[in-house]
Amino acid sequence: MREATDPPRWPCAVVFDLDGTLVDSAPDIQEALNAAFGPLGVPTFELRAVKTLIGGGAPAAVRRAAAMVGLALSSPDETRVLSRFYDVYVAASARGRGLYPGAHELLAALASRGVALALCTNKAEHVTAVALKALEIDRYFGAVVGALDDRPKKPSPEPVLLALRGLGATAGEAVMVGDTSADIGAAKAAGLRSIAIAHGYAKGPVEDLGADRVVGSLGEVDAALAEIGRLRRT
Prior knowledge:
Low-confidence stretches: 1-7
Number of helices: 9
Strand content: 5-15%
Order of helices and strands: EHHHHHEHEHEHEEH
Shape: elongated
Helix content: 40-55%
Radius of gyration: 18 Å
Oligomer: single chain
Strand order of the largest sheet: 3-2-1-4-5-6
Distance between the termini: 11 Å
Structural class: alpha/beta
Number of strands: 6
């Protein structure tokens, strides 16, 4: 029996990360990093190395990439590298590649049940808009929060809470789905339950992130949501 204080459905909202959760963006980031650093005579970054650089947004990835190759970038140099990075990254994102299997099916199933969906990512907001449109998943999200210069990034709870406000939902009604410590940390700080997905860019075992549930693919997320819902009723 549902308690009187329970909402008519649970979760009322799901907040998704993007890179490493809904889309494998590492090849696009690899292309952009190589274009950004190529004029500096840096050897090309291999895909395996690029995956270790992802997280915290493009400026953080550029700084990690520079450190990886022992390159000290001045502030003007970093600005130029980032400019080249974004030029290529926007073009690569516009191709709409890398969506993980089951993404459309999961988003459509949740939306059909009246679950409000939001996207909260550390990807720059203007790149996020291009990627969501090209991937043909923009229509599913009632709120999209990407990275801006004056906005805290995950693991801060602020972007997650901003996404929830955009949906008119509360933390107790929502679940975060992500792949890294930034996602799960933001969810915990914001008071959301969370699901960690193992196919992304976590720096260590995804089981160590402390999520309420760990899944191997997007096809397992709906069942995990149901499990979390049963647990909170016991």
